[in-house]
Amino acid sequence: MRHPSRSLAAVAACGLLIAAGLAEAAGKAPGHLKKGARAAGAEARYSDSGPEPLLAKVFDAIEGNQLDLAMQQTEMLIKAYPNFRLAHLVMGDLLLARSRPLMSFGEGGGSASGDKIADLRDEAIVRLKGYRTKPPADYVPRYLLQMHPEQKHAVVVDTQKSRLYLYQNDQGTPRFVADYYITQGKLGADKAREGDKKTPIGVYHVTSSLPRKKLTDFYGSGAFPINYPNEWDKRQGRNGHGIWLHGTPSDTFSRPPRASDGCVVLANQDLDSLSKSLQIGLTPVIISNSIEWLSLDDWQSERSSLLKNVEEWRQDWESRNVDQYARHYSHKFKADGHGYKDWIEQKRKVNAGKSWIKVGTGNISMFRNPGKEEHVVVTFEQDYRSSNLSGQMKKRQYWIKESGRWKIVFEGAA
Q1: Strand locations in 206-251 (E)
Q2: For residues 55 and 47, is the Cβ–Cβ distance under 8 A?
Q3: For the stretch 312-339, what's the b/e string if a residue is b when 16 or more beta carbons lie within 10 angstroms of its beta carbon?
Q4: What is the CB neighbour count within 10 angstroms for residue 41?
Q5: Is 271:246 a contact under the CB 8 Å cutoff?
Q6: What is the average per-residue pLDDT within 361-382?
Q7: What are the extents of the domains in the chain?
Q8: Contact call for residues 153 and 278 (beta carbons, < 8 A)
Q9: Is-contact 144 292, C-beta < 8 A?
Q10: How high is the mean pLDDT of the chain?
Q11: How far apart are CA 301 and CA 51, in angstroms?
Q12: Could you say which of 11, 19, 234, 406 is the most buried, measured as most Cβ atoms within 10 Å of its Cβ?
């Protein structure tokens, strides 16, 4: 072997090109922790799903100038994930380093284009960042304010980290279950229009399941459409359709971090695992640019505050005091063709003909929007009874913050 010490050093430099992208994330909590600090004992944890544990060992060996060990770990990685292109590229680098020094990551990629090498380098960085900066054990995503008892799980996507987090509903408290590498839109997030190749940011729900047999191979082992554009998106003038969670072609283990037309894409094995936790019409899918994390104490405080507002709205409706009821609605309110003034006037006329009203709100769920537009999506089963009319429905409201107070800006059937 020519200049073995130089070759080893060069391979180590190759690994450090990726490690440099991990330095900041490795020493800090993921995303943004409210109040800027971890609670005592809130240690970051390592992910144990997918190829990341083996991939991390490969680069640890490279950075430690342990070429033979790195080769062994890479062989194990390829054996476990035969279609994992990143693993094959690393193997190419390691083999090439036996004959000459390497000056950059991906030189062993043969005929692979510069763009493909850059894509694989980006994938390595986000995979290892996701592996090394798992959320602290006693912090939860700010957006999961309340899941109702039938919602067994919730999905939260961090587009900056190319990571999907799965949470279980543990008697009302979100509990971390697993996390997965994902691909987002070619041009990033914050979708606004049809064909912009961006992934939407907001609170969505799984609407259906499309099995492999009804799809082309491009979508892999299946697809789960979400309800983009939701009512809030429509109010903001956003359009487009066909945003799905789906898999990869049968000959592809994973795609680069930015490679879809707006969908959230997972490796087929990850989608198969995730699909066991998805409930059609129930599972929330919250897509964020960067997840904001809350301690359980702060989460409980925000949750209680919102629940108090919903309960006050319910009581004021029952009171038939329209002025009290109206204080819960934004002057920007629109629903069923009515603006704020029309809505309140209609309530005055309806209430004038009633001697009593009873309103039940069961199975309440509350999810905070992760975008810069501050609002909370509240869904519940409404049981309305009055002296001359009764009915049940599933209702959805959008609450916004106005002058420090939560107010309803939209409501209608869910």
Answers
A1: 210-211, 222-225, 244-246
A2: no
A3: ebbebbbebebeebbebbbeebbbeeee
A4: 8
A5: yes
A6: 94
A7: 4-132, 139-293, 295-413
A8: yes
A9: no
A10: 89
A11: 38
A12: 11
Q: How far is CA 166 from CA 99, 152, 158, in A?
A: 44, 11, 11
The DSSP-derived string for 125-191 is: HHHHHHHH-BPPTTEEETTEEE--TT--EEEEEETTTTEEEEEEEETTEEEEEEEEE-BEETT-B--
pLDDT tens string 268-326: 999 999 999 999 999 999 999 999 999 999 999 999 999 999 999 999 999 999 999 99
What local confidence, expressed as pLDDT, does residue 30 receive?
46
Could you identify the residue written with the tokens 């996507």? 157
Judge whether 179 and 166 are in contact, CB under 8 Å.
yes
Which of 64-68, 311-315, 383-387, 406-410 has the weakest average pLDDT?
64-68
Q: Which distant-in-sequence residues (6+ apart) come within 8 Å of 51 by Cβ?
A: 77, 80, 81, 84, 87, 127
What one-letter code names the amino acid at 42? A
Helices (H) and strands (E) in the chain, counts: 10, 21
Per residue in 61-106, pLDDT (tens digit) is 888 888 899 999 999 999 999 999 999 999 998 998 888 877 778 8
- Between strands 153-158 and 338-339, the pairing is unpaired
> Rounded to whole angstroms, what are the CA distances from 393 to 57, 188, 354, 381?
53, 37, 20, 6
Report whether CATH 2.40.440.10 matches the domain 139-293: yes
- The interaxial angle of helices 4-26 and 67-80, nearest 10 deg, is 60
3-state SS assignment for residue 122: helix
Look at the domain 295-413 and name its fold.
Nuclear Transport Factor 2; Chain: A, (3.10.450)
Q: Is residue 39 predicted with pLDDT exceeding 70?
A: no
CA distances from 398 to 138, 203, 206, 234, 308 (A): 28, 11, 18, 13, 15
In Å, what is the CA distance from 173 to each residue of 29, 33, 179, 297?
21, 18, 18, 11
